[in-house]
Amino acid sequence: MKCKEIRWKSQTNRAIMGTRPKGQSPLTETSQIKNEKSMQHMKKEQTDAFRRRLFSVIEVGNDGDFISRAYDLVNTLSIVINLIISIALTFDGVEQQYGKILLSVESVTYLFFAVDFILRVYTAKYLYRGLPEARAVFRYIFSFSGMVDLLSFLPYYLPVFFPAGLVAFRMFRVVRIFRLFRINVYYDSLNVITEVIVSKRQQLLSSVFIILVLMMASSLCMYSLEHEAQPEVFQNAFSGIWWSVSTLLTVGYGDIYPITTVGKIFSIIITFLGVGMVAIPTGIISAGFVDQYSRVKHLSEYGNESEIHFIKVALRETDEWCGKRIRDLELPRGVLVAAIRRREGVVVPRGDVVLEERDVLVLGAESFKDDRHIDLKEVTLYGKNPWIDTYIKDLDISRKTIIVMIKRQDKVLIPRGDLLLMEGDKVVLYTQRYVRDAERIQV
Q1: Which CATH architecture has domain 199-302?
Q2: What 3-state DSSP class applies to 387?
Q3: Is residue 175 within 8 Å of 151, Cβ to Cβ?
Q4: How is domain 375-442 classified at the CATH fold level?
Q5: Is-above-0.90 flag for pTM?
Q6: CA torsion angle for 104, 106, 109, 110 (degrees, to 10)?
Q7: Residue 339 host element (H or E)
Q8: At 253, is the secondary structure helix, strand, or coil?
Q9: CB contact burial 49-75 (16+ within 10 A = b; e otherwise)
Q10: Which pLDDT value is given to residue 307?
Q11: Is 436 left (phi over 0), alpha (psi -120 to 50) or beta?
Q12: CATH class of the domain comprising 308-366
């Protein structure tokens, strides 16, 4: 009876725990689970590496990345070709002779726009780092560039599913012209326009506000002066607004104009004021261009004349700067990020660039213009040096001696107290005492 009870418990435990193949131990099962997890982790890392590479290709490339630059060129050509075909198809002769060819090429450009949008959604989490993937995708789709990317191809395919709305969908195709703004990203010379407008936005808004006030005041005055003389022309205040717009911003279309003496005199005054008011935004933008190019020229001359020091810093996964944008780095005053070497290319250090693991940052700083220097000494640990196999906290050194860093082969180590010194290490220290066989370093 006891044997049967033991056998029944054994069968019950096997039923609960699950059957195990004959000859397989629990240790083997654990190793299989670890191997499966390791394989899944490797696949995830490969997928992430592929997505990061894909993101670097579809975003603005650099001169060293041929594939990225080729993608930028194809993107630009697709935008230009699509718009040229849209204009060409409005001519009857061109549509009759080359309509099929042009429509076929146009369909290819729309297909490229659709694939480009899908790739940008797929890599959105690398565009908005720090956000969950779902939020990053949502933020991209409803951003200005995301909406333009979506509407640049969606109206072309919607009539296939909704034939009744063909005319309405064709109207939305006009949005594709906004893809021209993507070309602005690829060329730094065009970015100057955006920088000037952003830097002078307060002055531009003030001048536009003055123009609007002058426009409203002149339209109401002209309506009061001319309504009785020509009620069919100046029917309401909107007629006065149309006259003020055509007078202030152009030379007038001739469809509406004053006929009374007082109205003509007032129109002359408004015309002179309009020339001055419209010239204000033009002068602001022109001055902004001059300031921008003067600043660039000054920086280039300054860089040639002054002594600037550069250092390279390689980011590791544990560094705090990984995943941060350049504008969020708390750099000391006078220190700037001159360039970023990412894999085989060089990334321009704009403020919205997110730093990644293994990036090599080139930091620049102006040299001090005083005569005081800090003299450091470098000691290489060889032979019977008593510091070999000794922890830094156990070194018998003066209080005025400071160990700055430890150079071990190709690595630079922080001199913590629990760091064990080894033969071949180079110890850089600051001290006023004499150190035998030490090389002098002047900073």
Answers
A1: Orthogonal Bundle (1.10)
A2: coil
A3: yes
A4: Alpha-Beta Plaits (3.30.70)
A5: no
A6: -100
A7: strand 335-342
A8: coil
A9: eeebebbbbbbbbbeebeebbebbeeb
A10: 60
A11: beta
A12: alpha beta
